[in-house]
Amino acid sequence: MDKENLKVLQTRLIKGEITEDEYNRILSAINKSESNTSRSHQRKEFTSDVEMASSTPISDSEQIPHRSPSNTWPNLDGQSRAESIASTSFPKAAGFYTYSLLTLSILTYALFFIAGAYQGSSGYSISDEETAVLVLLFGAGSIFLILEVILFFIVLHRAWVAVQKYHPRTTPGLAVGLCFVPLFNFYWRFVAIYGLVQDFNRAAESEDREDLCIPQAIGLLPPILACLYVVPCINYLAIFGMIAVVPAFIWYITDRIQRLQSGT
Questions:
Q1: pTM higher than 0.85 for the full model?
Q2: Structural domain range at position 14
């Protein structure tokens, strides 16, 4: 509505020729009519633009190039093909598994160390209150230890699954399961951990990705330190070594498998 018509309408309202309700209804009707007219005009302009675009031929330089499936081709979820492949083995980033295992390791050994020191300071006579504290410390440490072991073997199992198409030396189930066989597991840890590094390196070389090969020491140190657990005096050094070595092994194996699968 233009200003002149609005002024006329307001004058009629002041003179009493129309009521306030009639004034509001007239304004509402005029505004609604103008809104519909504006939308109709916009729709006509859009239709005209579409018709013009469809009738204009596309030059060769403007043609969308044909793309064969590649590591960057998006899927329906908006992810790249590389992200989709990488998520099949390890859905989280390598740092997630590494820092989670490192945190659990530190909490486990810290609680056991505190419990041992507390028990040593108490001597042979331990009160009921001190016993409750020791049970709490050892219990919490045991829970963190169980979580640490579960996370480690989940990663180990998934890593063996990821290299199965390259014909490795064992299956994921055997790689994890035989680690729990008493005495035999001293030998089998070398197969499950060091063997995994060797088989992955062969897989990387077969894909011409020698840059992803994992250092041999990363696979050798964890089973060696695990065997030193049973050696008196040295076992304390082995514990501190495992806190550093095992998370390093987890980071290498998860990161390199993700990069091999995604082609990055």
A1: no
A2: 3-46
